[in-house]
Design goal:
The chain is of the alpha/beta class. The chain contains 15 helices and 22 strands.
Length: 461
Protein backbone atom coordinates (compact mmCIF):
# COMPACT_ATOMS: atom_id res chain seq x y z
CA UNK A 1 0.00 0.00 0.00
CA UNK A 2 1.27 3.45 -0.87
CA UNK A 3 2.20 5.69 2.05
CA UNK A 4 -0.43 8.35 1.41
CA UNK A 5 -1.53 10.89 4.00
CA UNK A 6 -5.04 12.24 3.48
CA UNK A 7 -4.22 15.53 5.17
CA UNK A 8 -1.74 16.34 2.39
CA UNK A 9 -4.60 16.51 -0.12
CA UNK A 10 -6.80 19.10 1.57
CA UNK A 11 -8.03 21.51 -1.09
CA UNK A 12 -6.95 19.11 -3.83
CA UNK A 13 -9.01 16.92 -6.17
CA UNK A 14 -9.99 13.49 -4.79
CA UNK A 15 -11.74 11.01 -7.06
CA UNK A 16 -13.81 8.12 -5.62
CA UNK A 17 -14.18 4.93 -7.68
CA UNK A 18 -17.51 3.41 -6.61
CA UNK A 19 -18.70 6.57 -4.91
CA UNK A 20 -22.28 5.30 -4.60
CA UNK A 21 -21.39 2.63 -2.03
CA UNK A 22 -22.86 3.06 1.43
CA UNK A 23 -19.49 3.77 3.04
CA UNK A 24 -17.92 5.58 0.07
CA UNK A 25 -20.78 8.04 -0.35
CA UNK A 26 -20.62 8.93 3.34
CA UNK A 27 -16.86 9.41 3.28
CA UNK A 28 -17.20 11.60 0.20
CA UNK A 29 -19.66 13.79 2.09
CA UNK A 30 -17.39 14.03 5.12
CA UNK A 31 -14.39 15.05 3.01
CA UNK A 32 -16.38 17.58 1.00
CA UNK A 33 -17.47 19.19 4.26
CA UNK A 34 -13.84 19.42 5.38
CA UNK A 35 -12.58 21.38 2.42
CA UNK A 36 -11.49 18.59 0.07
CA UNK A 37 -12.54 18.76 -3.58
CA UNK A 38 -14.51 15.57 -4.16
CA UNK A 39 -15.90 13.86 -7.24
CA UNK A 40 -16.44 10.24 -8.28
CA UNK A 41 -18.06 7.61 -10.43
CA UNK A 42 -20.03 4.40 -10.06
CA UNK A 43 -21.18 1.53 -12.21
CA UNK A 44 -24.87 2.48 -11.98
CA UNK A 45 -26.91 5.41 -10.77
CA UNK A 46 -28.54 5.04 -7.36
CA UNK A 47 -30.23 7.02 -4.61
CA UNK A 48 -26.76 7.57 -3.14
CA UNK A 49 -25.31 9.03 -6.33
CA UNK A 50 -28.37 11.24 -6.81
CA UNK A 51 -28.02 12.54 -3.25
CA UNK A 52 -24.34 13.35 -3.80
CA UNK A 53 -25.17 15.29 -6.96
CA UNK A 54 -27.80 17.27 -5.06
CA UNK A 55 -25.09 18.16 -2.55
CA UNK A 56 -22.84 19.50 -5.30
CA UNK A 57 -20.53 16.51 -5.73
CA UNK A 58 -19.91 15.58 -9.37
CA UNK A 59 -20.71 11.94 -10.20
CA UNK A 60 -20.14 10.13 -13.51
CA UNK A 61 -21.96 6.88 -14.25
CA UNK A 62 -19.70 4.17 -15.63
CA UNK A 63 -16.04 3.29 -15.15
CA UNK A 64 -13.62 4.82 -17.66
CA UNK A 65 -9.89 5.53 -17.59
CA UNK A 66 -10.62 9.15 -18.42
CA UNK A 67 -12.50 9.58 -15.15
CA UNK A 68 -9.33 9.77 -13.08
CA UNK A 69 -7.64 12.40 -15.23
CA UNK A 70 -6.97 15.54 -13.21
CA UNK A 71 -7.25 13.77 -9.86
CA UNK A 72 -4.59 14.32 -7.22
CA UNK A 73 -5.68 11.26 -5.23
CA UNK A 74 -7.94 8.33 -6.07
CA UNK A 75 -9.93 6.41 -3.43
CA UNK A 76 -11.26 2.92 -4.20
CA UNK A 77 -13.06 0.14 -2.32
CA UNK A 78 -11.87 -3.38 -1.63
CA UNK A 79 -14.33 -4.53 -4.29
CA UNK A 80 -12.46 -2.57 -7.03
CA UNK A 81 -9.74 -4.89 -8.32
CA UNK A 82 -6.27 -3.84 -9.42
CA UNK A 83 -7.17 -4.51 -13.07
CA UNK A 84 -9.99 -1.95 -13.00
CA UNK A 85 -9.42 0.43 -15.91
CA UNK A 86 -9.31 3.47 -13.66
CA UNK A 87 -6.83 1.94 -11.23
CA UNK A 88 -4.62 0.89 -14.14
CA UNK A 89 -4.75 4.45 -15.44
CA UNK A 90 -3.69 5.73 -12.01
CA UNK A 91 -0.61 3.51 -12.20
CA UNK A 92 0.16 4.74 -15.70
CA UNK A 93 -0.18 8.40 -14.71
CA UNK A 94 1.41 8.04 -11.27
CA UNK A 95 -1.74 9.16 -9.40
CA UNK A 96 -1.61 8.08 -5.73
CA UNK A 97 -4.32 5.63 -4.63
CA UNK A 98 -5.87 4.96 -1.23
CA UNK A 99 -8.20 2.14 -0.25
CA UNK A 100 -11.47 3.16 1.43
CA UNK A 101 -10.62 1.46 4.71
CA UNK A 102 -7.32 3.34 4.97
CA UNK A 103 -9.16 6.62 4.46
CA UNK A 104 -11.61 5.69 7.21
CA UNK A 105 -8.77 4.74 9.54
CA UNK A 106 -6.96 8.02 9.00
CA UNK A 107 -10.14 9.99 9.71
CA UNK A 108 -10.82 8.02 12.89
CA UNK A 109 -7.26 8.55 14.14
CA UNK A 110 -7.86 12.31 14.22
CA UNK A 111 -10.21 11.94 17.22
CA UNK A 112 -9.43 11.50 20.91
CA UNK A 113 -12.13 8.82 21.21
CA UNK A 114 -12.65 6.34 18.40
CA UNK A 115 -15.51 3.85 18.76
CA UNK A 116 -15.77 0.87 16.40
CA UNK A 117 -18.78 -1.44 16.18
CA UNK A 118 -17.81 -4.79 14.67
CA UNK A 119 -19.36 -8.21 14.12
CA UNK A 120 -20.48 -10.46 11.32
CA UNK A 121 -24.01 -9.04 11.43
CA UNK A 122 -25.96 -6.30 13.19
CA UNK A 123 -23.34 -3.57 12.77
CA UNK A 124 -25.47 -0.95 11.04
CA UNK A 125 -28.45 -1.20 13.38
CA UNK A 126 -26.26 -1.19 16.48
CA UNK A 127 -24.11 1.71 15.26
CA UNK A 128 -27.32 3.62 14.53
CA UNK A 129 -28.61 2.79 18.03
CA UNK A 130 -25.42 4.02 19.66
CA UNK A 131 -25.45 7.12 17.46
CA UNK A 132 -28.97 7.95 18.64
CA UNK A 133 -27.96 7.52 22.29
CA UNK A 134 -24.90 9.76 21.91
CA UNK A 135 -26.76 12.45 19.98
CA UNK A 136 -29.62 12.52 22.49
CA UNK A 137 -27.02 12.83 25.25
CA UNK A 138 -25.57 15.86 23.36
CA UNK A 139 -22.22 14.22 22.78
CA UNK A 140 -22.28 15.25 19.07
CA UNK A 141 -19.93 12.61 17.68
CA UNK A 142 -18.82 12.35 14.07
CA UNK A 143 -20.65 9.30 12.72
CA UNK A 144 -20.02 6.92 9.82
CA UNK A 145 -22.64 4.21 9.23
CA UNK A 146 -22.97 1.64 6.46
CA UNK A 147 -26.63 2.56 6.05
CA UNK A 148 -28.89 5.56 6.50
CA UNK A 149 -30.87 6.93 9.43
CA UNK A 150 -33.29 9.84 9.42
CA UNK A 151 -31.84 11.38 12.59
CA UNK A 152 -28.66 12.40 10.74
CA UNK A 153 -30.22 12.69 7.28
CA UNK A 154 -28.09 9.96 5.74
CA UNK A 155 -25.10 7.80 6.58
CA UNK A 156 -22.74 10.35 8.11
CA UNK A 157 -22.76 13.19 10.61
CA UNK A 158 -19.93 15.66 11.07
CA UNK A 159 -19.99 16.41 14.79
CA UNK A 160 -18.25 18.99 16.93
CA UNK A 161 -17.29 16.53 19.69
CA UNK A 162 -14.09 14.57 20.25
CA UNK A 163 -15.64 11.21 19.31
CA UNK A 164 -15.62 9.29 16.02
CA UNK A 165 -18.13 6.43 15.76
CA UNK A 166 -17.98 3.99 12.88
CA UNK A 167 -18.89 0.52 11.73
CA UNK A 168 -15.82 -1.69 11.54
CA UNK A 169 -16.26 -4.07 8.62
CA UNK A 170 -14.47 -7.41 8.53
CA UNK A 171 -14.80 -7.80 4.72
CA UNK A 172 -11.26 -8.42 3.43
CA UNK A 173 -10.05 -7.51 6.93
CA UNK A 174 -10.64 -3.83 6.17
CA UNK A 175 -11.16 -2.99 9.86
CA UNK A 176 -7.45 -3.53 10.47
CA UNK A 177 -6.88 0.11 9.50
CA UNK A 178 -8.69 1.18 12.67
CA UNK A 179 -7.14 1.74 16.12
CA UNK A 180 -10.17 2.26 18.35
CA UNK A 181 -10.21 3.37 21.95
CA UNK A 182 -13.44 1.40 22.39
CA UNK A 183 -14.66 -1.58 20.34
CA UNK A 184 -18.06 -3.26 20.56
CA UNK A 185 -18.04 -6.87 19.30
CA UNK A 186 -21.54 -8.14 18.46
CA UNK A 187 -20.66 -11.60 17.16
CA UNK A 188 -18.04 -13.56 15.26
CA UNK A 189 -19.60 -16.01 12.80
CA UNK A 190 -18.87 -17.54 9.41
CA UNK A 191 -19.09 -15.14 6.46
CA UNK A 192 -16.95 -13.75 3.62
CA UNK A 193 -15.50 -17.22 3.15
CA UNK A 194 -14.41 -16.17 -0.32
CA UNK A 195 -11.69 -14.22 1.52
CA UNK A 196 -11.20 -16.07 4.81
CA UNK A 197 -9.84 -19.62 4.83
CA UNK A 198 -12.26 -20.76 7.52
CA UNK A 199 -13.88 -19.69 10.77
CA UNK A 200 -10.55 -19.93 12.61
CA UNK A 201 -9.10 -17.39 10.17
CA UNK A 202 -12.01 -15.06 10.91
CA UNK A 203 -11.36 -15.39 14.66
CA UNK A 204 -7.66 -14.69 14.17
CA UNK A 205 -8.48 -11.52 12.24
CA UNK A 206 -10.90 -10.27 14.90
CA UNK A 207 -8.22 -10.96 17.51
CA UNK A 208 -5.72 -8.94 15.49
CA UNK A 209 -8.22 -6.08 15.17
CA UNK A 210 -8.97 -6.06 18.90
CA UNK A 211 -5.26 -6.15 19.66
CA UNK A 212 -5.09 -2.75 17.94
CA UNK A 213 -7.25 -1.12 20.62
CA UNK A 214 -5.23 1.78 21.96
CA UNK A 215 -3.54 1.40 25.36
CA UNK A 216 -6.10 1.99 28.12
CA UNK A 217 -8.96 1.19 25.75
CA UNK A 218 -11.80 -1.29 26.18
CA UNK A 219 -13.44 -4.14 24.27
CA UNK A 220 -17.16 -4.73 24.89
CA UNK A 221 -17.83 -8.39 24.06
CA UNK A 222 -21.12 -10.23 23.54
CA UNK A 223 -21.22 -13.02 26.10
CA UNK A 224 -23.98 -14.82 24.19
CA UNK A 225 -21.63 -15.42 21.24
CA UNK A 226 -18.97 -17.94 22.25
CA UNK A 227 -16.36 -16.72 19.77
CA UNK A 228 -16.82 -13.07 20.74
CA UNK A 229 -16.67 -13.92 24.45
CA UNK A 230 -13.49 -15.97 23.91
CA UNK A 231 -11.67 -12.82 22.81
CA UNK A 232 -11.48 -11.89 26.49
CA UNK A 233 -8.76 -14.52 26.89
CA UNK A 234 -7.00 -13.66 23.63
CA UNK A 235 -6.40 -9.91 23.87
CA UNK A 236 -4.64 -7.61 26.33
CA UNK A 237 -7.24 -4.83 26.34
CA UNK A 238 -9.65 -4.36 29.23
CA UNK A 239 -12.84 -6.31 28.48
CA UNK A 240 -16.44 -6.09 29.63
CA UNK A 241 -19.16 -8.51 28.57
CA UNK A 242 -22.92 -8.37 28.02
CA UNK A 243 -25.56 -11.00 27.38
CA UNK A 244 -29.22 -11.87 27.59
CA UNK A 245 -28.40 -15.57 28.10
CA UNK A 246 -24.95 -15.46 29.67
CA UNK A 247 -25.65 -14.85 33.35
CA UNK A 248 -21.93 -14.36 34.03
CA UNK A 249 -21.72 -11.25 31.84
CA UNK A 250 -20.99 -7.85 33.36
CA UNK A 251 -24.20 -6.49 31.81
CA UNK A 252 -27.33 -8.62 31.84
CA UNK A 253 -31.08 -7.99 31.55
CA UNK A 254 -33.93 -8.52 33.98
CA UNK A 255 -37.66 -8.71 33.28
CA UNK A 256 -37.18 -9.17 29.52
CA UNK A 257 -40.53 -9.08 27.73
CA UNK A 258 -42.08 -7.98 24.46
CA UNK A 259 -45.32 -6.61 23.08
CA UNK A 260 -47.42 -8.03 20.24
CA UNK A 261 -45.09 -6.44 17.65
CA UNK A 262 -42.10 -8.23 19.27
CA UNK A 263 -40.62 -4.95 20.52
CA UNK A 264 -38.72 -5.76 23.70
CA UNK A 265 -38.23 -4.01 27.01
CA UNK A 266 -35.88 -4.91 29.84
CA UNK A 267 -34.05 -3.59 32.89
CA UNK A 268 -30.28 -3.54 32.28
CA UNK A 269 -28.20 -4.84 35.16
CA UNK A 270 -24.67 -3.54 35.60
CA UNK A 271 -22.85 -6.09 37.76
CA UNK A 272 -26.27 -6.96 39.15
CA UNK A 273 -27.33 -3.37 39.85
CA UNK A 274 -30.36 -2.08 37.89
CA UNK A 275 -30.12 0.83 35.46
CA UNK A 276 -33.03 2.75 33.89
CA UNK A 277 -35.44 0.45 32.07
CA UNK A 278 -35.15 0.24 28.28
CA UNK A 279 -38.18 0.07 25.96
CA UNK A 280 -37.45 -0.42 22.26
CA UNK A 281 -39.42 0.69 19.20
CA UNK A 282 -37.61 -1.78 16.90
CA UNK A 283 -38.64 -5.45 17.03
CA UNK A 284 -36.71 -8.63 17.65
CA UNK A 285 -34.83 -10.31 20.47
CA UNK A 286 -31.62 -9.75 18.53
CA UNK A 287 -32.26 -6.02 18.82
CA UNK A 288 -32.73 -6.36 22.57
CA UNK A 289 -29.28 -7.97 22.63
CA UNK A 290 -27.90 -5.17 20.44
CA UNK A 291 -29.43 -2.61 22.79
CA UNK A 292 -27.81 -4.26 25.79
CA UNK A 293 -24.48 -3.99 23.97
CA UNK A 294 -25.16 -0.29 23.48
CA UNK A 295 -25.91 0.06 27.20
CA UNK A 296 -22.57 -1.56 28.08
CA UNK A 297 -20.72 0.62 25.55
CA UNK A 298 -22.38 3.86 26.57
CA UNK A 299 -21.60 3.17 30.22
CA UNK A 300 -17.90 2.91 29.32
CA UNK A 301 -18.30 6.40 27.86
CA UNK A 302 -19.68 7.72 31.14
CA UNK A 303 -23.34 8.11 30.18
CA UNK A 304 -26.00 7.76 32.86
CA UNK A 305 -28.59 5.01 32.68
CA UNK A 306 -31.37 7.55 32.15
CA UNK A 307 -29.54 9.10 29.17
CA UNK A 308 -29.04 5.69 27.60
CA UNK A 309 -32.64 4.64 28.15
CA UNK A 310 -33.96 7.86 26.59
CA UNK A 311 -31.77 7.45 23.52
CA UNK A 312 -32.71 3.82 22.98
CA UNK A 313 -36.39 4.62 23.40
CA UNK A 314 -36.04 7.26 20.66
CA UNK A 315 -34.32 4.92 18.21
CA UNK A 316 -36.62 4.32 15.24
CA UNK A 317 -34.36 2.05 13.18
CA UNK A 318 -32.07 2.38 10.18
CA UNK A 319 -33.24 2.27 6.59
CA UNK A 320 -33.21 -1.15 4.92
CA UNK A 321 -33.35 -2.90 8.31
CA UNK A 322 -36.79 -4.53 8.67
CA UNK A 323 -38.21 -1.37 7.12
CA UNK A 324 -41.89 -0.98 6.18
CA UNK A 325 -41.66 0.51 2.68
CA UNK A 326 -45.37 0.79 1.89
CA UNK A 327 -48.76 -0.88 1.62
CA UNK A 328 -50.17 -1.97 -1.76
CA UNK A 329 -53.58 -3.60 -2.21
CA UNK A 330 -53.75 -3.99 1.56
CA UNK A 331 -50.44 -5.90 1.58
CA UNK A 332 -47.61 -4.59 3.77
CA UNK A 333 -44.22 -4.49 2.05
CA UNK A 334 -41.05 -4.80 4.15
CA UNK A 335 -37.37 -4.89 3.28
CA UNK A 336 -34.32 -6.08 5.18
CA UNK A 337 -30.67 -5.78 4.17
CA UNK A 338 -29.74 -9.21 5.51
CA UNK A 339 -26.94 -10.72 3.45
CA UNK A 340 -26.70 -14.26 4.80
CA UNK A 341 -29.01 -17.01 6.12
CA UNK A 342 -28.22 -16.22 9.77
CA UNK A 343 -29.71 -12.77 9.31
CA UNK A 344 -32.72 -14.14 7.41
CA UNK A 345 -33.33 -16.48 10.34
CA UNK A 346 -33.55 -13.50 12.71
CA UNK A 347 -35.82 -11.28 10.66
CA UNK A 348 -38.37 -13.70 9.14
CA UNK A 349 -40.05 -14.32 12.54
CA UNK A 350 -40.61 -10.55 12.81
CA UNK A 351 -42.44 -10.51 9.47
CA UNK A 352 -44.33 -13.67 10.50
CA UNK A 353 -45.53 -11.89 13.64
CA UNK A 354 -46.78 -8.97 11.53
CA UNK A 355 -48.56 -11.34 9.13
CA UNK A 356 -50.28 -13.28 11.92
CA UNK A 357 -52.78 -15.62 10.33
CA UNK A 358 -52.23 -14.05 6.90
CA UNK A 359 -49.81 -15.26 4.23
CA UNK A 360 -46.12 -14.34 4.47
CA UNK A 361 -44.20 -14.08 1.20
CA UNK A 362 -40.41 -13.98 1.55
CA UNK A 363 -38.47 -12.79 -1.50
CA UNK A 364 -34.77 -13.67 -1.23
CA UNK A 365 -32.04 -12.34 -3.50
CA UNK A 366 -28.94 -14.47 -2.81
CA UNK A 367 -25.83 -12.29 -2.63
CA UNK A 368 -22.70 -13.34 -4.56
CA UNK A 369 -21.94 -16.74 -6.06
CA UNK A 370 -19.25 -17.56 -3.50
CA UNK A 371 -21.48 -16.89 -0.48
CA UNK A 372 -24.34 -18.86 -2.00
CA UNK A 373 -22.07 -21.87 -2.54
CA UNK A 374 -20.33 -21.71 0.82
CA UNK A 375 -23.53 -21.19 2.84
CA UNK A 376 -25.73 -23.41 0.65
CA UNK A 377 -26.74 -25.73 3.50
CA UNK A 378 -27.55 -22.74 5.73
CA UNK A 379 -30.12 -21.61 3.14
CA UNK A 380 -31.94 -24.91 3.63
CA UNK A 381 -33.01 -24.03 7.19
CA UNK A 382 -33.37 -20.25 7.28
CA UNK A 383 -36.88 -19.72 5.89
CA UNK A 384 -38.92 -21.10 8.79
CA UNK A 385 -42.13 -19.06 9.19
CA UNK A 386 -42.47 -18.21 5.49
CA UNK A 387 -45.59 -19.45 3.71
CA UNK A 388 -44.07 -18.93 0.26
CA UNK A 389 -40.42 -18.28 -0.62
CA UNK A 390 -39.47 -16.56 -3.86
CA UNK A 391 -35.83 -16.92 -4.97
CA UNK A 392 -34.41 -14.46 -7.51
CA UNK A 393 -31.27 -14.81 -9.56
CA UNK A 394 -28.04 -14.45 -7.59
CA UNK A 395 -26.80 -10.86 -7.27
CA UNK A 396 -23.23 -11.03 -8.58
CA UNK A 397 -21.96 -7.79 -6.99
CA UNK A 398 -18.17 -7.84 -7.37
CA UNK A 399 -18.00 -11.40 -8.75
CA UNK A 400 -18.08 -13.06 -12.15
CA UNK A 401 -20.36 -16.04 -12.74
CA UNK A 402 -18.26 -19.17 -12.12
CA UNK A 403 -20.82 -21.31 -13.91
CA UNK A 404 -21.17 -23.88 -11.12
CA UNK A 405 -23.91 -22.29 -9.00
CA UNK A 406 -27.35 -20.96 -9.95
CA UNK A 407 -30.45 -19.83 -8.10
CA UNK A 408 -32.38 -22.80 -9.48
CA UNK A 409 -30.06 -25.10 -7.53
CA UNK A 410 -31.24 -23.41 -4.32
CA UNK A 411 -34.85 -23.71 -5.46
CA UNK A 412 -34.54 -27.43 -6.24
CA UNK A 413 -32.80 -28.19 -2.95
CA UNK A 414 -35.33 -26.20 -0.90
CA UNK A 415 -38.22 -27.86 -2.69
CA UNK A 416 -36.71 -31.27 -1.91
CA UNK A 417 -36.74 -30.25 1.77
CA UNK A 418 -40.45 -29.42 1.57
CA UNK A 419 -40.07 -25.63 1.47
CA UNK A 420 -42.81 -23.93 -0.61
CA UNK A 421 -40.48 -22.14 -3.02
CA UNK A 422 -40.79 -20.48 -6.44
CA UNK A 423 -38.06 -19.37 -8.85
CA UNK A 424 -38.72 -15.77 -9.91
CA UNK A 425 -35.50 -14.67 -11.67
CA UNK A 426 -36.23 -10.95 -12.13
CA UNK A 427 -38.19 -8.20 -10.45
CA UNK A 428 -40.98 -8.33 -13.03
CA UNK A 429 -41.36 -12.06 -12.38
CA UNK A 430 -41.53 -11.39 -8.63
CA UNK A 431 -44.13 -8.67 -8.95
CA UNK A 432 -46.28 -10.70 -11.36
CA UNK A 433 -46.27 -13.69 -9.01
CA UNK A 434 -47.00 -11.64 -5.91
CA UNK A 435 -49.87 -9.69 -7.45
CA UNK A 436 -51.40 -12.93 -8.72
CA UNK A 437 -51.28 -14.62 -5.34
CA UNK A 438 -51.45 -12.09 -2.51
CA UNK A 439 -54.58 -10.96 -0.68
CA UNK A 440 -55.28 -8.01 1.56
CA UNK A 441 -53.69 -8.53 4.96
CA UNK A 442 -50.74 -10.51 3.61
CA UNK A 443 -47.12 -9.47 4.17
CA UNK A 444 -44.17 -9.42 1.76
CA UNK A 445 -40.58 -9.07 2.91
CA UNK A 446 -37.65 -8.76 0.51
CA UNK A 447 -34.25 -9.91 1.77
CA UNK A 448 -30.79 -9.16 0.44
CA UNK A 449 -27.97 -6.63 0.34
CA UNK A 450 -27.91 -6.24 -3.43
CA UNK A 451 -30.57 -4.18 -5.21
CA UNK A 452 -33.64 -6.16 -4.09
CA UNK A 453 -34.92 -3.04 -2.29
CA UNK A 454 -35.71 -1.69 -5.75
CA UNK A 455 -38.42 -4.37 -6.06
CA UNK A 456 -40.24 -2.67 -3.18
CA UNK A 457 -39.99 0.63 -5.02
CA UNK A 458 -41.21 -0.95 -8.25
CA UNK A 459 -44.28 -2.45 -6.56
CA UNK A 460 -45.00 0.79 -4.69
CA UNK A 461 -45.16 2.86 -7.87
Amino acid sequence: MQNVRLIDYKGKQIHFIGIGGSSMSGLAELLAGRGYRVRGDDRVASHSTEKLVREGISVVIGHDAQNVHGADLVVYTAAIAEDNVERLECVRLGIPQMERAELLGQLADEYARSIAVCGTHGKTTTTAMLSTVLLHARQDPTIHIGGEMDLIGGSVHSGAGDTFLTEACEFKASFLTLHPTLALVLNIDADHLDFYRDLAHIEETFQKFLSQITPGGTAVLCGDNARAKAMKERIAAHCVTYGLDDAQSDYTAADLCHDDALCYSFTPLEHGQPLARVTLRVPGRHNALNALGVVATARQLGLAGEEISAGLSAFAGAHRRFELTGTVCGVKLYHDYGHNPAEFRSVIPLADAVAGAHHLFVVCQPHTYSRTKLLFEEYMTCFSGADTVLITDIYAAREKDPGDIHATMLVDALRARGVPVVYTPGFDDCETYLRAHWQAGDVVITLGCGNINLLNEQINR
